[in-house]
Design brief:
Layout: H1 31-34, E1 42-45, E2 72-78, E3 84-85, E4 91-99, E5 102-103, E6 108-115, E7 122-127, E8 133-137, E9 143-153, E10 156-166, H2 181-192, E11 200-203, E12 212-220, E13 227-235, E14 241-247, H3 259-263, E15 267-271, H4 282-290, H5 308-324, E16 329-340, H6 341-352, E17 358-364, H7 394-403, H8 405-411, E18 416-420, H9 429-436, E19 443-447, H10 457-470
Parallel strand pairs: 3-10, 14-15, 14-16, 16-17, 17-18, 18-19
Antiparallel strand pairs: 1-8, 2-4, 4-5, 4-8, 6-7, 6-9, 9-10, 11-12, 12-13, 13-15
Helix pairs in contact: 2-5, 5-6, 6-8
Length: 479
């Protein structure tokens, strides 16, 4: 559960049922939802409900011009501590609202219940009694049901989320495997390797330490002038070391070295994907994000051979080429990790680069884009959703499967660790499970159910230690 105060207009009841307590009395008129999943939902006041043992995670975002009250707590818990159910079971969401440890009277909480990231099937508003409010929901196939509760107090909007899982291990990906998938990528990599790496490295004295040398690096990618930039951290002590590549989440930003990994005897490389230096002032990246690189994920999607991500996916393999060229690399122990877009790129590396020994994947984006055609959510960037500006032309439909994380997951043969949260709406858990369930190689899963689209400190620590263990490195400290 996350609490995010924001300013904004009060939500309007769009259910067509009016301000009622029983949702299931009004049938939906949304054809998308009708063909998707069937819900039974009821709101009822309860006078006693045991608190679950697990604590809720909170996050606060202060809007401009309004100060959030840190004593306000809008919470959602579920009657199953692990938030897991079977299709047809009734998941009971318990909503409480307090300020300074006391119930808030007279406030109307807006409630929206629906399948994972799909349009809410029902909306309503209700006061929250001192004992709390219960909302029940179910689905009749594997998937997720999410309750979003919000309230405006003092001009600040507070929001809470709770997400119930219904046999998610049975979710099946919808995106097809295209003919010639590996042939396409082998040819792309072979073509890129015709270009010399042309490595350039600049030691950054301000970021280096007596134990770690830090470099701003670049190397040539798939054609002359097309470069990949990154931050490299190398132990100063003579010797041979394993290496970890971190591939980035979506966006345009600077990147930073991970000196703590190098202190543990691991070469670390963090790369960007846009062919621009990664050590500049944030103003540059803000301007590019708003102009030339806005919606870069859609650039030339109608052309499989010139889609924006082709050079990115190939660049991940070329990053491996760069690491294998380093004098201090041990020549064998090499792993890749990343989250969101980087989760997809980790899968790309694990399949296209046979030198990779293990991957760690956090909430993988670029995942199961065809799910929208079957009434389910995909992961970011939601190419085929009804709210996307993308026109589903035949050529684009033919390109998408060559870049979808699901198809890389199907071909993975090395060990992997996956991690995500149930409250993620950027890469919804439906999409993450579609990827995970497609993997037949040895795999592990670490769920932080309250988490949204960010790793908790515990998840980050688990990923680091899992990777170090696979590489035979010992972690003294990772802070």
């Amino acid at each position: 559960m996350a609490v995010i105060p924001r300013t904004g207009k009060r939500q309007v009841d769009e259910s067509g049922c009016g301000p009622v307590l029983y949702f299931h009395g009004c049938p939906t008129r949304d054809p998308t939802i009708m063909r998707h999943q069937y819900f039974a939902a009821v709101i009822s006041s309860v006078f006693a409900l045991a608190s679950p043992a697990d604590a809720q995670a909170h996050s606060v975002q202060a809007p401009a011009g309004a100060a959030p009250d840190s004593s306000v707590h809008l919470d959602i818990t579920l009657d199953h501590p692990d938030w897991r159910y079977h299709p047809g079971d009734s998941a009971r969401f318990h909503v409480t609202l307090s300020r300074g440890g006391r119930p808030v009277s007279g406030a109307k909480v807006q409630l929206a219940l629906g399948a994972d990231r799909m349009p809410p099937m029902r909306r309503d508003s209700a006061g929250v009694p001192a004992s709390g409010l219960t909302v029940s929901g179910t689905i009749h196939e594997p998937g997720f049901v999410r309750l979003i509760a919000s309230v405006v107090l003092g001009g600040v909007r507070y929001e809470a989320r709770g997400t119930a899982a219904f046999d998610p291990e049975q979710i099946v990906a919808s995106t097809p495997m295209p003919d010639g998938f590996m042939e396409f990528w082998r040819a792309a990599i072979a073509h890129a390797r015709e270009m010399p790496l042309d490595v350039r490295m600049t030691r950054l004295a301000s970021r280096s330490t007596p134990e770690v040398d830090v470099y701003h690096i670049s190397f040539q990618n798939d054609r002359a002038g097309s470069r990949i930039y990154g931050m490299l951290s190398v132990p100063t002590k003579p010797g041979k070391y394993p290496a970890i590549l971190t591939v980035p989440g979506a966006g345009v930003r600077p990147y930073f070295p991970r000196v703590e990994l190098a202190r543990n005897g691991v070469i670390h490389l963090a790369i960007g994907i846009h062919g621009i230096p990664v050590d500049r002032d944030s103003l540059l990246y803000n301007e590019l994000r708003a102009t030339a690189l806005k919606d870069y994920w859609a650039y030339r999607l109608e052309d499989r051979d010139n889609y924006y991500y082709k050079r990115v996916y190939v660049g991940v393999v070329r990053a491996g080429d760069f690491i294998f060229s380093l004098p201090k690399f041990d020549g064998s122990h090499y792993a890749v990790e990343g989250g969101s877009q980087g989760g997809a790129l980790s899968l790309v590396a694990g399949v296209l680069d046979p030198r990779v020994k293990a991957i760690a994947v956090s909430h993988p984006a670029m995942s199961d884009q065809f799910a929208w055609l079957h009434g389910h959510t995909s992961g970011w960037p939601f190419m085929l959703s009804d709210t996307a500006h993308l026109v589903a032309k035949k050529e684009k439909m033919e390109t998408i499967p060559f870049y979808d994380a699901v198809n890389f997951a199907r071909l993975l043969t090395i060990p992997s660790l996956f991690t995500w949260g149930f409250n993620d709406t950027t890469v919804p858990p439906t999409a993450s499970y579609a990827v995970y369930n497609s993997v037949t190689a040895p795999k592990e899963l670490d769920i932080a159910k309250e988490a949204g689209h960010a790793r908790t400190p515990e998840q980050k620590d688990r990923v680091d230690r899992w990777l170090l263990d696979r590489l035979g490195a010992r972690a003294s400290t990772l802070r």
